[in-house]
Amino acid sequence: IDFKTGQFITLYFPDTPAYKRAYSLSSCALDRGYYEVTVKREAQGVVSRLLCDETREGSLLQIAAPQGVFTFTGAEANSIVLIGAGVGATPLMSVVRYLTDRGWAKPIYLLLSLRTPEDFLFREELEYLQHRHSNLRVVATMTRADGTGGAAWTGAKGRLSKEFIAQSVPDLPKHRVHICGPATMMDSVRAILLELGALPEN
Whole-number mean pLDDT of the chain? Predict the structure, then answer.
């Protein structure tokens, strides 16, 4: 079950063949015994509710082989900037896990935009990985920093802005960048990156 970091699989439900969804793999490509997907349960999402509420160990799913070219293995560049919003963090987490598991010693920047601190996927794991890998820098910003519980957010607030990206990533034009999230966010971030001198081919 080999795959490359950043790829996705498509899940099918044999009992309801009309239901199928593509999910980015969030697991490390070095862990070859399983696939991991991270699913956000949407109140109106037919398939996400089916997965979160009804799918159990032993449930039968059909899976299409991993595909996609949104990949990074470390061979493509000497540094990587990963920018994600919401569940767009899932394929980026696969990259972070893979590079840190390999002991890739080159710069890794992970910039995340989330609604609230409660939406901060993989937070504890990322804090742990940062302690172990000095080349990994994780920075998050919250669009609704008050959240619904837990400790108050003391980090950055607001959307992914030009100032936030410039402060988070030194020498931005030197780095390769991968962006994942809603289409409007990706368009906005791409425009910001070009303003900051990022090379279009990166």
Answer: 92
